Amino acid sequence: MSGLVLVGVGPGIGTAVARRFVREGMSVGLIARSEATVKAAAVKVAADGLAGADVLPVTADVTDETALRAALDRVVEAYGVPDVVVYNAALIQPDRIGDLTARQHLDAWAVNVVGAITTAAHLAPAMAERGSGSFLITGGMPVPKPAYASLSIGKAGVRTLVTLLDQQYGAAGVHAASVTVSGGVAPGSAWDPDDLANHYWRLHTQTPAEWIHELVI
Fold first, then answer.
1. CATH of 3-216, one of 3.90.800.10, 3.40.50.1950, 3.40.50.720, 3.30.1380.20
2. pTM reported for the whole predicted model
3. What's the pLDDT tens digit per position in 7-20?
């Protein structure tokens, strides 16, 4: 049964999105760097009356191309080519221009952008061949902030990636979009993770005539 692949699951947006899609009867493949994190997310997804959820937790570092591709293959082997992919990994850290070494900038770029490229390169062609699917990326920083230089640059990168994916795969039925989160995610706030999860579901269920490619929240 095809469903959701969520790369970069954590206790906030990632878990909320997984729970939202499970409620619609989808299988979920969860990928995170930490085994403890991905297992905790899997337990949370199965909680609150969702004990029958079909959830597969897999450990992989998004900066390790071989490991990430192997993790994606495990999910595809279990559930088939996904209906929707959500890339939610990000390195969120305060830094200004001049604070980081070149190596540190490359490390941030690897998480914020290159992992999303690897995920898309691995899954989008099969989704396009099938003729349907959604590739959604958690965006942010609608306005660059000097105090978050590497994150601002990274989110600009994934915004461009969404445009490129739409140009390459949109005509084949793959909906590429980003959810640009404009503030700090916390329960009960303007960026409550459960509320945000509804936007991912709405993007996935849009018809091609309704497609939008960036949703700013």
1. 3.40.50.720
2. 0.95
3. 999 989 999 999 99
